[in-house]
Write a structure and sequence with these properties.
The protein is mostly helical. 77% of the residues lie in helices and 0% in strands. The chain has a domain of 59 residues: Arc Repressor Mutant, subunit A (Orthogonal Bundle).
């Protein structure tokens, strides 16, 4: 029988994934504490906006604002990373 190769787990992809993960972790660590804490509770721990607000003693609006700012900063940092990778590949 014909076997279908699973291309999703090639060593090069694993390396790239590990590299991107390491870059993202560094980007998260570089966030200001107020943004990092909200990001970690919401995106990593999976808490709701309400739960995060209660833990941090913030309004839900403040949690949403901080999460939005954290995501924006991370998006900007990742776009810099990807642009540099594209330049490197040329």
């Amino acid at each position: 029988p014909l076997e279908i190769v699973d291309w999703s787990h090639l060593p090069e992809d694993t390396l790239l994934t590990d590299e991107v993960r390491a870059y993202l972790e560094e980007a998260v660590r570089s966030l200001p504490e107020s943004l990092k804490t909200v990001f970690l509770l919401r995106e990593i721990e999976g808490l709701s906006t309400r739960e995060t607000a209660e833990i941090l003693q913030l309004s839900e609006a403040a949690v949403k604002t901080r999460l939005s700012r954290a995501r924006l900063r991370l998006r900007e940092q990742l776009s810099v990373y990807y642009r540099s990778q594209m330049e490197y590949e040329k």
